[in-house]
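Quick one, tokens below. Sequence please?
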């Protein structure tokens, strides 16, 4: 199964639209998992033109009153895939994310919140974060494509644009 993974779109509060590169990256996916911070439910409708979408609530979604589950667990082939926003501090702390994944019973835990992509293979779990296609933090805008084939899992971070650093924006 080919799965598109996205997080932290922040539309319309921080960005105006999903980059076209996301639609190109997700062209052949069968499912899209969104790890929260949509900030508008319209994003789900837009992504559903490509494939069914499942999402969880991010910290900013609560601010905007978007009611979605805080966590989800999916059985995909031979894997239990957990989906959370990943509100741990410090952001992206793998030990805390691992504990959240263990609580869910996940083999694979997808999170967002950091706006930075990563793939971490732990002894008993794989941690994935697609980054953000619209408001990355000190990295390239990105999404992820996850291929699950039986007992084989392959994750690829896909760059969806040029790096953005608002601290270098001198036009104020």
């Amino acid at each position: 199964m080919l799965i598109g993974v996205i997080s932290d779109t922040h539309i319309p509060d921080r960005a105006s639209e999903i980059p076209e590169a996301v639609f190109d990256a997700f062209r052949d996916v069968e499912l899209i998992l969104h790890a929260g911070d949509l900030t508008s439910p319209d994003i789900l409708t837009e992504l559903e033109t490509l494939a069914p979408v499942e999402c969880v609530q991010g910290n900013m979604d609560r601010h905007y009153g978007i009611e979605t589950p805080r966590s989800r667990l999916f059985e995909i082939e031979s894997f239990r895939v957990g989906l959370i926003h990943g509100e741990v501090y410090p952001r992206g702390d793998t030990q805390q994310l691992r504990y959240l994944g263990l609580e869910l019973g996940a083999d694979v835990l997808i999170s967002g919140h950091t706006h930075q992509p990563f793939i971490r293979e732990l002894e008993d779990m794989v941690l994935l974060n697609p980054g953000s296609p619209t408001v990355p933090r000190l990295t390239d805008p990105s999404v992820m494509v996850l291929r699950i084939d039986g007992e084989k899992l392959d994750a690829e971070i896909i760059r969806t644009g040029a790096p953005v650093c608002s601290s270098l924006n001198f036009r104020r």
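The CA atoms of residues 45 and 53 lie 9 Å apart. Helices lie at 20-25, 42-47, 59-63, 94-104.
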